[in-house]
Amino acid sequence: MKSNERKTVNRPADSSNPGHFDNRFAQDVRTGLGKSPKALPCLYFYDKIGSSLFERICRQPEYYCTRAEAEILKTHSRDIAAICNRSSRIVELGSGNSEKTRILLETFIDSDIRATYYPIDISHGILEESAVVLKEACPPLNVRPIAARYEDGLEMLEPIGGKILLLWLGSSIGNYEPESAKSFIARLQSKLSIGDYFLIGVDLIKDSAVLEAAYNDRSGATAAFNLNLLARINRELGGHFLLERFEHRAIFNPEEGRIEMYLVSNCEQKIRIDALNMTVALAKGEQIHTENSYKYNPEEISLLGDHKGLLLIKQWFDSRKQFSLNLFEVSNGGS
User: Fold this and answer.
1) pTM for this structure?
2) Residue whose C-alpha is closest to residue 121's, from 204, 55, 197, 38
3) Which runs of consecutive H residues, i.e. helices, occur in the chain?
């Protein structure tokens, strides 16, 4: 890499200060481990180590989501660019390493559509690394990373005008209860303007064996990802969790239409968390809930924008119809 190339990549915004997240992390850990049943927000999976582990998950043969979404983007990115050709700002929620997004970004560049890319992610480290890689791969691309939570990041966008293509790829929407997902999408819409677009990745309902295998890969990548949540508490909050005393569990709940992920205590134990001045007691077999991942039928997806001003205009599926990308247009924005 040429020495002057790094200088062209904008550093993440000031909200990347680690203390900005530590206090909220501490509060959420205290609340989640102090209630019954115990739970920890899946948001906190994605520190630098967790983000790296998630990339490993995406490479596992059982984890179909990444491959299916990449197939859709490779097949239909020109269609997306043609529809969204007036978008001068491409904003991505939970961008991670932006590997799949690069397919779409390259298509915009090849189509001579000049847009600035704003990746928003809670992980400062992964943002900086991916921004450098993107700049090398796509030299014409202007990359402006924002280290923040989703809504905070949207508030930090530069007021330069121009239409927005908002991306929410992967299956992160599944982490929200369906009604909460609708409410969250409505809040995001309120920060957009008429004529903006919102492209959302949604995982589809399918055979439970396929779903459970995706979250219980044979390599143990998902187990390591889940257990890293306890390791993060140890690193950042002075926790004394012994990871070998916990097991990863992921099951499909057909009544709720979701994968449920847990950390299960394999013995009776008490764990001190120094920074919280807190001791957590766990019975043998007691579970800490760490994630839900809801799956949708194709006909349910339009209901995610089932409020005035957000219309589903196009759906794309992979060849096995395991995953979908869904393009909504804003007809009644907040600005």
Assistant:
1) 0.86
2) 55
3) 18-34, 48-58, 64-83, 101-110, 124-137, 150-155, 178-190, 208-214, 221-237, 298-301
